[in-house]
């Protein structure tokens, strides 16, 4: 079970860091998407920080379980919020990746709890 946890954790952390990097570069695609979703540019630093903290907490959680569970709960809330923002503007296509990442975050909670 721990191997599954480690694989999901590393995968999620890599995705989070890539996403945070794209947000920090303020690419046109990301900027347009955030504008469409109604996310103010002033929130970008918070979103980037949340993704980096989630990745770091998930990795640290491999050694200290409670930190991993807390990080996974935070990531679940982060991605559930992303789903809500996408659905609020009728962007079902954009909501799909956020739904998958929400489910992966929930899986992290379960896997970390099962390996305590």
Structure description:
The chain is mostly helical and 116 residues long. Helix content is 84%, strand content 0%. 23% of the residues are buried. α1 packs antiparallel against α5 and α3 (44-60) runs antiparallel to α4. The chain has 5 helices and no strands. The model has no long low-confidence stretch (mean pLDDT 96). InterPro entries: DoxX (IPR032808). It is found in: Membrane. This is DoxX family protein.
Describe what is shown at a glance.
By secondary structure, the protein is an all-alpha fold. The protein has helices spanning 2-25, 28-37, 44-60, 65-88, 92-114. The protein has one domain (2-114).
Broad structural category: mainly alpha
Strand content: under 5%
Total helices: the number is 5
Radius of gyration in whole Å, from Cα?
A: 14 Å
Order of helices and strands: HHHHH
Secondary structure topology:
Blueprint: H1 2-25, H2 28-37, H3 44-60, H4 65-88, H5 92-114
Keywords: Membrane, Transmembrane, Transmembrane helix
Protein name: DoxX family protein
Subcellular location: Membrane
């Amino acid at each position: 079970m721990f191997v599954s946890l480690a694989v999901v954790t590393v995968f999620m952390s890599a995705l989070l860091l890539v996403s945070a990097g794209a947000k920090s570069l303020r690419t046109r695609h990301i900027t347009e998407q955030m504008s469409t979703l109604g996310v103010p540019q002033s929130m970008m630093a918070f979103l980037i920080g949340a993704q980096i903290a989630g990745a770091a907490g998930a990795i640290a959680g491999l050694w200290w379980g409670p930190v991993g569970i807390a990080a996974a709960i935070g990531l679940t809330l982060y991605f559930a919020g992303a789903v809500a923002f996408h659905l609020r503007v009728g962007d079902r296509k954009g909501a799909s990746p956020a739904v998958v990442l929400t489910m992966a975050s929930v899986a992290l909670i379960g896997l970390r709890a099962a390996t305590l």
